[in-house]
Design goal:
By secondary structure, the protein is an alpha/beta fold. The protein has 2 domains: about 55 residues; about 140 residues. The strands form 2 sheets. The chain has a 5-stranded mixed sheet with strand order 3-5-4-6-7. Strand 6 and strand 7 form a beta hairpin. The longest helix has about 55 residues. It is rod-shaped, with a radius of gyration of 31 Å.
């Protein structure tokens, strides 16, 4: 065999070895890339599952750990509609009945920064319609406020619920639940407590405008 042919074969062999090495390196990179992709996908699935489990589970603590008083039924203070802007003094704080403005407040969750924006006289009208109001202290612990927001976001019939910051929550409580003629205060959020209060009072105000009653989902 001539030296020229030998050199040509040697070069071909070198090139084939280089090509084989590149293919092996490419396969390794692909395996590594897909391994990373699979790990990321697994983490995403795990996080989504944990989030769904958190959202589907009860909000807050067990009812026995919520630090709630018993439901009270203050004396009815009347239900006269007065002109918007008319100040009204109530016998309880927060109120559960009494004179109120003509237009009720929108339902929803209002953050601590909105303190004082919604007149109490409007909110009382919500209760006359059968809505439930959760009044929370603006300096309540963040986990309590987060749990109240989580409850509002995940509960059924949230259109019949108003969560509102309010100066005047008596210590040691962080929030008070009210409906027309009823009130209960708690230190911690318990989904069972909130559900039980709404089952008893929601949709049963003296001015029936179609607010639905509430039944907790099992």
């Amino acid at each position: 065999m001539s030296k020229k042919l030998e050199e040509k074969q040697r070069r071909r062999q070198i090139q084939e070895e280089r090509d084989a090495a590149r293919r092996r390196a490419a396969r390794k990179r692909n395996i590594l890339t897909w391994g990373v992709v699979l790990v990321v996908m697994a983490l995403v699935v795990l996080l989504i599952g944990m989030e769904k489990q958190r959202e589907s589970g009860p909000v807050g603590v067990d009812d026995a750990a919520a630090g709630c008083n018993t439901i009270e039924t203050p004396e009815d203070e009347g239900a006269t509609h007065v002109d918007d802007g008319t100040p009204v003094t109530y016998g309880t704080s927060p109120p559960t009945s009494g004179d109120h403005w003509i237009d009720p407040a929108p339902s929803g969750f209002n953050p601590p920064s909105s303190l004082g924006e919604m007149p109490t006289e409007r909110i009382v009208h919500n209760m006359e319609h059968g809505q439930v109001v959760i009044w929370y202290a603006p300096d309540a612990p963040s986990d309590v406020v987060d749990d109240l927001e989580g409850y509002f976001d995940n509960t059924s019939g949230a259109g019949a619920l108003l969560v509102e910051p309010y100066e005047g929550i008596e210590t040691p409580y962080n929030f008070t639940i009210t409906a027309w003629g009823a009130t209960q205060s708690c230190e911690e959020v318990s989904e069972d407590i909130l559900d039980a209060f709404r089952e008893r009072f929601q949709g049963k105000g003296p001015e029936n405008v179609g607010i639905p009653t509430f039944t907790a989902e099992n």
